[in-house]
Amino acid sequence: MQSNTAKRRKLDHAARAPTFEAMSSSASAMGASGASAFIMQTEELLKETKFDYSKVSSTIEDTVRQFKDVIEKAQPHDPLPIGEVTAQFEESTRIIIPYPDPKPAEDSPYKLSFERPAQVNVVGSWVLKTNVNSQSDLAIDMIVEMPPFIFQEKDYLNMRYFYKRSYYLAYITSTLRKAFGASTDFVFEHLHGNQLLPILVARPKDTSHKNGDSNHASSQRNPKPAIRIIPCISEPLFPWARLTTASNAIRPGKSEVENTEDAKAPTPFYNTTLKAESKYLAYLRILLKAAHFCPAFRDACVLGRVWLQQRGFSGKICDGGFGHFEWALLMAFLLETGGRKGDALLSPSLHSTQLFKATLQCIATTKLLKQMMVFCIDPPDVPHGINVLYKMTPWSIALLTEQAKWSLSAMNDNPHDQFDPLFIINADQPLQMFDMLLSVHVPASRGGVESVDRKGFVFDFGAKLYQTLKQALGERAKLIHLNLPGRAAWPISSTGPNSENNTLLVGVVVDPLKASQAHDYGPALEQKEECEEFRDFWGDKSELLDFGGNRIVESLDWTEFSYLGFSGICEGIIRYILKFQLQLGDTDLEFYWKEIPKIMSFTSSDKLAFDGARQAFEIFERDVRDLEDLPLHVKQIAPICSDLRRTSLSIPEFNFRKPLLQPMEVVVSFELSGRWPENIAAIQRAKAAFLLKIGRSLEEAKEEIRTHIGLESATRDDENLAFLDVVYENGASFRLRVHSDLEESLLERRTKDKTVERHIRTEASELLSSYKRMYTNLPLHNQTLSTFCTRFPALSSSIRLTKHWFDSHKLSCHFGEELIELFVLQAFLKPYPWDTPCSAMTGFMRTLFLLSRWDWRDEPLIVDSANSLSTSQRLEIGTRLQAWRKIDPNMNRTVMFVATSHDVNGTAYTLHGPSRVVATRMTTLARAACDAVKVKGVDLNVHSLFRPALRDYDVLLRLSPRVLKSITRDDATRRSQYANLNEQNVGKAALPLVEPPARTLLKKLNSLYSNPLLFFHGAPDDNIIAGLWSPLMHKRKFTMHMPCSLQLADEQTDSGEQLYEVNRNAILAEIARIGGDLIEKIEVKEG
Q1: Is pLDDT of 175 > 80?
Q2: Is the predicted pLDDT of residue 971 greater than 60, yes or no?
Q3: CA–CA dist 1019, 993 (Å, integer)
Q4: Which among 247, 216, 432, 477 is positioned nearest to 945, based on CA atoms?
Q5: Residue 143 · residue 230 · CB < 8 Å
Q6: Cα 180 to Cα 176: distance, rounded to the nearest angstrom
Q7: What local confidence, expressed as pLDDT, does residue 370 receive?
Q8: Is the pTM of this model over 0.85?
Q9: Which helix (H) or strand (E) holds 727?
Q10: How many CA atoms lie within 13 A of 472 on its CB side?
């Protein structure tokens, strides 16, 4: 079947217009396997999402036919004055006529009448068969064409047409209620949120609860569509020359003659709304024609509907004004014209996915804000063209364009991972999309804001707000978007919808580099008109700045907010300009995420501290390289710690009074030499000798340097034995280890040596993994993260905030900090369906979203930072994960599989954790956080994301803050209780810590009690160690190798043998003895 389809497409392509040229390049970029996978996924999506018309067509068609018959038989009446007919109708029917604001005056000179409609037809998606199951507003659009003789030539003026339309709709409502009131609910609604166009919505009453739960569940799976009654007119009825975008159709009354500006102001929205009233059938013919000669048109429309729906777009004004209708009409337009010499831009032989991508590319590349999308029914009928995007706002056009660009980037970036960002992920999440969010209270005063175009005050205020913010933020904001409140339906007996939400949500995507600028410069003093406009906009904030050389310019100074970073500068700009231009005070604005500084402070001094650490490392590197008495020349000195890649949770601040207690770790490599001993244990002693020599030489060369040799907690003589701590007088300290290339070769040789025992090869393999992590992976990781922290300004703060989240939930002891950094880096490298994060909170939210969606059981995480992995390499990584799962189906050894550009094996970062239980908890917490973001939105309390659930643990070991502080304090004289030792230590600073005391205790507990207890701990200064009793330690019979302390149980086996259970009290008593004064209290969960 597929081959026949392909052959038919080839023949069609030869006979008709040329295909869209960009599709060939996109297909080649995807590759054959990527394109075929994407096509199969979209075809499966179409099967699942297409609405099944066969289940409701028979019943709903009968209902539509009955509605049509009743409407066509409605009784006409003669014209009556509008005030008289309104009062009589509303009193007799108890139906309030849905006149648009402002309501017509009772003494208006024109009359209202009702005549039977010229025709009644069904239009829209129901006829086109492009509805989907996930539609929340599933409905059948029934247009009722009002007869032309009830209108007069000048009814296009002053909303007279819309008043007559509203009465016509109310009269139809009374007729339908008499016939179907017992089985149908009727409400009024604004068509697409346009307050000029009220419509009637008829929904069948829900009687499923009377027939049992099974029928109710069936009705939920197969919802019955509503019927929307839409009055309209035939074409042409009014002079189109009077309804151009530059024409004015709202004339002021006699009392408003002095307002000449309103009398001359154009009303494009009003005029286009009126013109569009006659185009329903014409548009339907265009779409049906496109569906007829392009077999994939309907499927492409469904894909477009899903894509728009996942991004919060619809035909409603509050949802952007671009929905399925606009998408379908744009695609039909591209199938007819848009190419060179008026030829079709797209070929009807294209597949639905190709049509979808071509439409996306058109949206992304066409400047919709400047170029109106005008569709004409017939080629000669150019003056009758209508801009179908008239419902869109400047901010919704900007967002739609950016969303299309982001989607195209996702498709071009990775051919094997483009489906979910396009159709599955809900991208309409403000907390994950925008870097700044604020709500603006809509003022009650409408003076100077509301226009005569009848868009509504909230719409006009939003337009003014958007233009003000766009001009004020300038290049600081890459995207500004406003969420307008929607217009709800209202009962037919009510005067109108409930009062609108009086706040607007504003989202800003910032450029972090430009947003951090503390000065703005305007026009030069010689440009008189530009300077006057600049001062009118900024007021007293504008001041002249002399650069010398007769160069004087207007300028703005925001240095008072510099200490708050780019978010503080942008907030200061927004507060000032909205107060000056729109008279909005501080109480009218609410900025979200204001509590983030209470969770973790990000200031400009952080960058200075990291820069200072880097400068200290460069000095240390130079000092080591300048040593001339070393046996070998230094080849490389590579940092391997988070302080020197700008990702450490604690800021590396130091001075001569407060040195670093935790040194910055580095690795030194020497030139190749044959003088290294060919024995691993001997190499370790040679490395220790190297460190001693480096220490003595540094102290001799630099008086401000002190060195201390330290011993590792090694259990075998072939492990690394020593390190060198180098402490500078200014407080900087480094921990140096030596790298030997020969050691790697010897370990590889031992792992492959079949003549030695198996346990020796296993130990060698473990040593080789530790060696590669320390001397190969960590230096490359440090280099990669340093590069991307420079490329992405928000990456460093996002990593630190994510690490704080892991610490808060006591997970960081199971996750290496390098692994956490890779999680965040992946959220920056693959940000789809959004753009790269530009703030710490956005990067953190995206990382949680990544973790919540990552199925680490079956999917590897591939962090291709160098963009060097080929398709075959990616497939090999997936195959390697499947092999691991076959070898270890219970995931006792390898749980997460994380591959990078420099480590395709996938286990370098996860060899020692996390376990399956911990990984599951991480996913659960990430999903809970994302669910809270989705449900609560901007009302989310950010503190709740970092609040640990201590009640989930069985045991809590509360450490003494006083003892922790006494161990880590900067006072060596307080470390001994003996006076003579205190005298010897006077003036000597404390030695650098090997590791934090809480981590030392945790390692000891894990080495002794990892079988019965699973421990959780957060940051090094966290004073709570939590524990869970292992469910695997069930009651058992006595054996020689018991896993832990056991006691007699109250049960026996069926054969009468005594069972034993974990002696929890004894284990906790042993833990208390080991911890000593460090453990202040042990809390045990009851039950």
Answers
A1: yes
A2: no
A3: 16
A4: 432
A5: yes
A6: 6
A7: 64
A8: yes
A9: strand 722-728
A10: 28
